[in-house]
Each structure stands twice: as structure tokens, then as C-alpha cells.
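Re: the 277-residue chain
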Amino acid sequence: MLRFVLFTTLAALVLAELEPEPRYLEDSVEERVVGGEVAKPNSWPWQISLQYKSGSNFHHTCGGTLIKRGWVMTAAHCVDRSRTWRVVLGDHNINSNEGREQYMSVSRVHLHPRWNSNNVAGGYDIALLRLSSEATLNNYVQLGTLPPSGQILPHNNPCYITGWGRTQTGGSLSANLKQAYLPLVDYRTCSSYGWWGSTVKDTMVCAGGGKDSGCQGDSGGPLNCSVGGKWVVHGVTSFVSSSGCNAYRKPTVFTRASAYISWMNSVSALKKQNHKF
């Protein structure tokens, strides 16, 4: 699923600057989180690990946010193929069972109806997962807070990306959850020349653009932003530049959660009316 281009000529490099190629952030052997630090265990208790079954084992591929006891928000590109999925709640080290985890199978995947798997830059990179049972809320598992519909945060609003992976490109893998400080980049800046240009839509959120960024394995996870002294999940991790996860003036791009509140409400309401789901 990784979509990137190897540019070999100067002309192609210039073209890449003018028309940035987005790259998905699913897990790969190569790289995941860039920069940041290991988070305090269970300090982001709405963060989940989305895993797929291969053989007899499950493997981490994306992140996600527990938004209701039976619902997880993630990226559409993480789950737009047929696989056996599970969600792990309350996790910190994804390679060991620390006794705090809750393991849930996924009973249904709801992709946004306008999602196009061939065009991540087209937007709509959001999905809801209906869990087979409801989470037990405790000190390690909590619901993420979603923003009011349509809310847009100001430039440089403090935010953190969270996910599992490397602390630097080419560095050693760590199984512990990491966090990286990514100040928000407003749409006017992010969509300007020399940044992402027209690749970024107003239903997206940009954050970072310096040494820290999201990378493979972070897709679907939350962009946690400080609003009024509380953490609010304003983004779903979507893509980075093909030229590198922490490319200058190519901030990590997130699906803007506040643009999809009504859709998410309609999906979860539909579940209540139809017991076949």
C-alpha cells in the first residue's frame, strides 16, 4: 500500500516539490515514528493498536482512537481490504502482555462512502470500527474526546501525535508507545506554495513540518491537541511526503475529525436502529 516515487533527476525533484506525493503511514519494516519520546505508560488511554491476523499471529499495522465504548475511529486506508482485525486497548508495549490490555475483535468496518483507496489526497480517509463487545473503562482505557463539528484550531496550537515505532529514521525499533510534539500548521500555510499546496484539503489538518513527524505504523492514530486545558482528538493520522516522513515544510497530514462528526454520529446511530450490524 505504500505509495512513493524514487526521483532520479533534478527536474523530477523540482516537480516533487511542486506536486508533493503523499505516502500512507501504515506499518512497514522500514520506519515508523520520527522524533519524539516514549510516552508515560497509558498516558494516552484512548490510543489503540489495530492489528491484523497473519497465520496464527496478530501484527500491529495502524493506530486508532476509542471514541465510544464499542467504537474506534481510524483511517480508511488502514482497513479498506478484507482481513481479520482486532483492536488492543490499554496497551503500551505491543510485544508483551502487561495485564492491562483488552483485546477486541472487529465486528464491522464502516469506511467513509466517499473514500477512494487510489487517492489519499482526495480526503475522506476515515473509518469507524464496530467492536464485538464494549470496552471496560478504567485508568488504562478511556474514551477520546472529539471536537465540536466544524471546529478549526489556530496556527501553532500545541498537539501531540502518538503511535508505536522508531524514534528516528533508520533507528532501532521500540515496541513502546511514543509521542511527538507537533504544533498545528494552519490551512492557509499548509496549502501554500512550497508546503503541501493543493494536495491538502480544508477537511485535513497539518501538524509539524520540522524534525518530528508521523511515519509508517502511525496511520489512523490520534492527533491529540490541547484545547482549554483538555486533550481533544482533532486528527486521524493520514499521510506524509514521499520524500521522507519528516521532510521540511511537509507536515504530517491528518483527517480533520471535526469535519466528520455528523457522519460518525450517523453511523453509530444507525447501529442502534439495526441489530444486524
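The first helix runs from residue 10 to 18.
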